[in-house]
Write a structure and sequence with these properties.
elongated, alpha+beta, 185 residues, Lipocalin, ten-stranded antiparallel beta barrel
Length: 185
Amino acid sequence: MKLNRAVSFVSLSAVLAAAPAVFAQMPPPPKPGPEHQLFKQDEGTWDATVESYMAPGAPPMTSKAVETNTVACGGLCMLSNFKGEFGGAPFDGHGTTTFDATKKKYVGSWTDSMSTGLMIGESTYDSAKKTLTGYMEGPDESGKVTKMKSVVEYKADGSRVFTMYMNAPDGKEVAAMKITYTKRK
């Protein structure tokens, strides 16, 4: 038993002695860049009005929700929590977004109480139009993998509008949901 402790102590000592040399060779951790400023803009608590279009031309089903966004990972990502209702039932969703410097795109994941898995997406930001446009792909409520387009418009008054588009049976892209966000003071 004493031999095992001695071997463990010697092994731990060797690891601790080598640690500074190993860490000195590691590149410095990434730092937030200008692309991450969008996260600071989205950070906070937002009141949301959700309009869900159940059929083209039909009036939308409307509900209220709250989204809370937190900048995390040293400013490199944003965590989103969304709580509301859909069709009278509670709705709970969670997202993670970061900027992938290799792809030069925002990448993210989303899961919610109506999904059977994780949606993955990529978006690009047009600073002149103040618009974030991209696609998400993943299982819908039935488990079928779908691809959806999303557009976030940043308005001059500080609000933002998220619109999700899906393909109709005829193949045309139609708005399926629109969420208007107003930031709490």
